[in-house]
Amino acid sequence: MTAFALGVLSSILATAILVVAGWVRSSRPRWWLVGLLSRLAGTGVHRVYRRQRSAEKDIAHDLAQARWVKVLAGRGNTLTRDVFARLWSGGAEAVESVQVLLPDPDAVPGEWLVRRAADLAPVDPGFTAALLSDQIRTNTRYLDTVSRDRRAMELRLFDLPHLYRLIITDRAAYITLYERHGHGRGSPCLYARAPGVFYEAALHFFAVTWEGGHPLPREENAETPG
């Protein structure tokens, strides 16, 4: 009888473990657990996306409600896509200011672009420093054109390692932690609400980088994109 009872209890326990494991693996319960731990620790991290691209729908939603926006990106491809389309078209009318930081493709000696390209070479052999520089120039020209019709938008260039992508609003921050041998779109992304340790850290990092950045060279500002 005892053996039978233990067998039944073991089966129930095993089933319960499987149910809980499946529950935790789903995204929303996992976010709930992350949010609970965040409130206890004060980090402000409420969601974790396994891949940056999984956050795009939520980013677009937050941008539409933002009072101000700050972006620091590794090359800026996302800034030319649907995620930011409403912001550039004027759909997000409540936005008072937009600040964008992109790497300087003409920095001397430009070692950070070279290092980033070298890190990605094992998984993407076609991704060279020259290609990365060209993509950044294309994106800066796009944003420069956008800024001409939006006085509240500013664009600056920086010369620092490619470690993070930051999209910050007055309510929250999306922090992508670039994997060394992986593109940003496949890297993990944290969603941190204000106030909180991670939100404040992202805001401070952006502010310091912005102060050390510089506007586009005059000759590039004068260039008319074809």
Count the E strands.
Answer: 7
Distance between the termini: 84 Å
CATH architecture of the largest domain: 2-Layer Sandwich
* Strand/helix succession: HHEHEHEHHEEEEHH
Q: CATH topology of the largest domain, what is it called? A: Endonuclease, Chain A
Total of domains: 2
Strand sequence of the main sheet, in spatial order? 1-7-6-5-2-3-4
Number of contiguous helices:
8
- Secondary structure: helix percent: 40-55%
Look at the structure and give the mean pLDDT.
81
Q: In CATH, what is the class of the largest domain?
A: Alpha Beta
CATH homologous superfamily (4th level) name of the largest domain: Endonuclease Chain A
Low-pLDDT parts are 4-27, 220-226
Shape annotation: globular
Major pleated sheet: 7 strands, mixed
Radius of gyration: 22 Å
Beta-strand residue percentage: 15-25%
Question: What would you say this structure looks like, in words?
Answer:
The protein is an alpha/beta fold and 226 residues long. The protein has 2 domains: 1-41; 42-221, 2-Layer Sandwich (Endonuclease, Chain A). Helices cover 47% and strands 18% of the residues. The protein contains 8 helices and 7 strands; from the N terminus they run ααβαβαβααββββαα. The chain has helices at residues 2-25, 27-41, 56-65, 82-89, 111-120, 129-148, 197-212, 218-221, and strands at 45-49, 68-72, 97-103, 153-158, 164-169, 172-177, 189-193. A 7-stranded mixed beta sheet has the order 1-7-6-5-2-3-4, sandwiched between helices. A hairpin with a 2-residue loop joins strand 5 and strand 6 (172-177). Helix 3 packs parallel to helix 4 (82-89) and helix 5 (111-120) packs across helix 6 (129-148). The longest helix has 24 residues, at 2-25. The N and C termini lie far apart (84 Å).
